[in-house]
Structure formats: structure tokens, C-alpha cells
Specification:
The protein is of the alpha/beta class and 289 residues long. It has one domain. Helix content is 28%, strand content 23%. The protein contains seven helices and 13 strands. The strands form five sheets. The chain has a five-stranded mixed beta sheet. Strands 2-3 form a two-stranded antiparallel sheet. The protein has a two-stranded parallel ribbon with strand order 5-9. A hairpin with a 2-residue loop joins strand 7 and strand 8. InterPro entries: Ni_insertion. Keywords: Nickel. Pfam families: Ni_insertion. This is LarC family nickel insertion protein.
Length: 289
């Protein structure tokens, strides 16, 4: 089975995931054909090369004319359901938004269905998440493993004012994953990036792998380290790790893909928080949502 190692030494965001998947070798035309309809003719997707600390990477920029919107979880799910994409892609994307809604609900003391998505409910963020899942499918649905995650530090401005970094929803989404901060770098891992990690990845076990393809996805920051997300595709080498060695994905909401009955999901997931509004807006140059 193919595996993908996701290196988050400069954080993770939706656009960084898109760039890394495209850079690792999936078909750009096939990917665009799947996600362009989400824009409904009201925007464009720009794919370009970028250099970050002398590392060549792929940059994906989604431009959309949409004004400030407040979508509920059901609104986002309806957009995803209407997409002409494989069921597994739609299910993974809805999983990510459900996790975001649960995170926000835990932070604001309400329920996932009542949450208003701000930044992460915008079309560009929907394209980020759906596009990341579509790219993963086009890459052959590899088992994904993530390195310890650089989450940034300091504070950032969002729809609710100034919040600590990592944003509350980002931290809630990454419960159970190894994280660290390299200092006051601002927001390096966004709620959108954290939601993609939570749905797709497990923590990387100590086990050798053979690397066959490497992709770099560029963020928008200039950091002391190259602001890129790296995805390495390959295979495990040798025998598997024993149970004590492997790190496992945190418990999710029970693995249910049918999100039309959100009240049936265990509430312990609610303290795993998910972000919809704390996502810092485009303050400074932070990696995009």
C-alpha cells in the first residue's frame, strides 16, 4: 500500500496541501476539472511556481469574488454534496468540516449545527478542503502519516478579534498529534490545514520508508525555514512496527461518515474543538486558510 509522509516543519494550510499534492505529481488537469465547478464561474484557480528559501514549490491561489459569508455546516455540506466528485472525496471533505464545526462549538459553548462558519466557510476554504481530498484520491488514496507539526506562536487577528496562535480551533483539531512551536512565527498551521490532517493522517511511526516521489507546496509566509509543506510518496520497507511503537490517529467522532445526524456523535469530540471562526483572516502574510 502506498503511503504519504506529510512534513509540517513550517506548519500546514489548505493551500500548502494543494500545492504539495500537485507538486508530487498528480494530474493538474484532472484536479482542476474536479474543483473548478465549485467556483461556479465566479473565480479562478492559479497554479504557479514559487521559491521558498531556495526550495522550488508549487503555489495554489484560489480567487473568488464572494463577499463575507456566514455558512452553517448544512450549507457547506450541500455545496460538497452537489459536487461531481467520488463519494469518498465528498465524505472526507464533510468529515473535515464536521470536525471544524465541533471544534468551534466546543470553543463557543454551542452545538455544531448552530455554528456560523466565517473564514473557513468561504468558497476558497471549501475548495482548499475538497481539493485536498480530491488530490489525495488522485494520488491513489495513500495511507497518510504526519510529522510533528509546527503550529506557530504569538497571536493573530481573526473575525473575533485577536486570538492566540495556534488558534483555539487549530489546537483542538490537533489533539493527540505531536505539535511544537519554533517561536513567535505567527500562524503557521491553520484550522483548515489542521482539519485536513485530522481526517487524512496518523502520526508517523518510527519505521523506514522508501521515498518514490516528493512534492513541496508553498505557503505565503517568509519564515526562518522554507514556508512549504512536503509530501513524500512511497512504501514501507521491512516489517511493520509493533503496537508500542506506532502512534495512532486520535479518536474521531466514531468514524461515521453520515453527518446528517450530528447529534448522535459523542460529545467528547466536542472538546476536540474545531474552528470555523477563529481562523485568522489574512492578517500579515499568514498561510492561507
Amino acid at each position: 500500500m502506498a503511503i504519504a509522509k506529510i512534513d509540517c516543519f513550517a506548519g500546514a494550510s489548505g493551500d500548502m496541501f494543494l500545492g504539495a499534492w500537485l507538486d508530487v505529481g498528480i494530474s493538474e488537469d484532472a484536479w482542476l476539472a474536479g474543483v473548478r465547478p465549485l467556483l461556479e464561474g465566479q473565480g479562478e484557480i492559479e497554479i504557479a511556481r514559487a521559491i521558498k528559501q531556495e526550495i522550488a514549490a508549487t503555489r495554489v491561489l484560489i480567487r473568488h469574488k464572494e463577499g463575507h459569508v456566514h455558512r452553517h455546516l448544512a450549507d457547506v455540506e450541500a455545496i460538497i454534496d452537489a459536487a461531481d466528485l467520488p463519494d469518498v472525496v465528498k465524505r472526507k471533505a464533510k468529515d473535515a468540516f464536521f470536525h471544524l464545526a465541533v471544534a468551534e462549538a466546543s470553543i463557543h459553548g454551542t452545538t455544531p449545527d448552530a455554528i456560523h462558519f466565517h473564514e473557513v466557510g468561504a468558497i476558497d476554504a471549501i475548495v482548499d478542503i475538497v481539493g485536498a481530498m480530491w488530490a489525495w484520491h488522485l494520488a491513489g488514496e495513500p495511507d497518510c502519516y504526519v510529522s510533528p507539526i509546527e503550529v506557530g506562536g504569538g497571536s493573530a487577528i481573526c473575525a473575533h478579534g485577536r486570538v492566540p496562535v495556534p488558534a483555539p480551533a487549530t489546537l483542538a483539531l490537533l489533539k493527540g498529534f505531536p505539535i511544537y512551536s519554533s517561536g513567535l512565527w505567527g500562524e503557521t498551521t491553520t484550522p483548515t490545514g489542521a482539519a485536513i490532517i485530522r481526517v487524512l493522517a496518523k502520526a508517523m511511526p518510527v519505521r523506514p520508508m522508501r521515498v518514490d516521489a516528493i512534492g513541496y507546496g508553498a505557503g505565503t509566509k517568509d519564515l526562518p525555514v522554507a514556508n512549504v509543506l512536503r509530501i513524500s510518496l512511497g512504501e514501507w520497507v521491512g516489517a511493520g512496527p509493533d503496537a508500542s511503537e506506532a502512534l495512532h490517529r486520535p479518536e474521531s467522532h466514531g468514524g461515521h461518515a453520515h453527518h446528517h445526524h450530528h447529534h448522535h456523535h459523542p460529545h467528547e469530540e466536542a472538546n476536540g474543538g474545531h474552528h470555523t471562526e477563529h481562523h485568522p483572516s489574512h492578517a500579515g502574510e499568514g498561510t492561507t486558510i
